[in-house]
Structure formats: structure tokens, C-alpha cells
Amino acid sequence: MIRLTIKDPEQIVSFLTDEDRVFHFVAGCSINPANLGELLMATEIYQQGVTARIMADLMEFDKTLRHKGPSFIHEAISSAQAQSKALEMTFQVIDEMTEREALVARENELVVLDLARHDIIASESLDIPFSDEVHIYNDQTQTSKTVTYILPQNWTIEPITE
């Protein structure tokens, strides 16, 4: 699994996903999205249903945050760390503790898509090319169709420096 963290000018969200889905989000960056909403819509072309799933997860996070306060996410992070596991929930960065969790590779690879800086930062073991082909998924099922993406010239790809 890979922790994918998406930063836009107004928010940071983070979730676990697999390598194929990470490349769908990288391909979504080919349209130069300005924010999370634009990236989700661009990624929908490659992975149908991704927008609804992530938005539903973020709404659930927000609802729980309103009812329980930030202690629920702090406890979940602490528990995952104590068990040497990756935090499995989709979450929004709300403070320093959640930001550390979103931006540190812990028990998994990490990819950070910074939409404002047009930057992709990835674990060294991941090879993220500026252009490639990605398979199209119909919900969770891979189809035989592929689409080529090309990142705009103003994007950079960098390894995570520990």
C-alpha cells in the first residue's frame, strides 16, 4: 500500500491506496488541477467511482471530527504507530500530528501531490515517470483500455529525502 497525500492551497488530505490508483492520480495531474476537487474529477476518467469514495470518506471523517473532536484521529494515529501499522483511514490534516502522519512514510511508501507547487514527491523505491500509460478501471475492475498521460512541463518529480 501507498500513502497518497494531496496538498492544495486550502487543504491536505491523505489516504492509503495501491500503486495503480496512485498512477491514476498522477495522470490526473496532467490537466494541471488547481485543487482537490479538480484532481478528483480528472482522476475519475481513469478510476470510475474514486471521487464518490474519497468524498464519502472525507465526509465521514468530518462528521466524526465534529462529534468526537480531534482526539479520535489522534488515538487512531497513536494506535497505528504502536502496532507498527499504517493508518488506514482517509483523513484531512487538522493539526501538526495529522500533518506528520500525512507526510511521513510509515510502514508503506509515500507519494505527495502538491497541486500548488506542481510537485510530486515520492518514496525513492517508486518510479513515477512524466509520461506513461495507465489502465482504466470500471469501478474496481481493470479494463483492457489504457490512456497515455503526460505531465505538463511545469511539474517536477522528486524523491523523498529522509
What does the model show?
- The structure is a single chain.
- The protein has 162 residues and is an alpha/beta fold.
- It is 36% helix and 28% strand.
- The model has no long low-confidence stretch (mean pLDDT 95).
The total count of helices amounts to 5
Mean pLDDT: 95
Please tally the β strands and state the result.
8
Terminal residue distance: 19 Å
| Strand order, largest beta sheet | 3-2-1-4-5-8
Q: How would you sum up the global shape?
A: globular
- Global structural class: alpha/beta
Q: Runs with pLDDT <50, length 5+?
A: none
Q: Classify the helix fraction into a percent range.
A: 25-40%
For the biggest sheet, the summary is: 6 strands, mixed
Which percent range describes the beta-strand content? 25-35%
Radius of gyration: 15 Å
Order of helices and strands: EEHHHHEHEEEEE
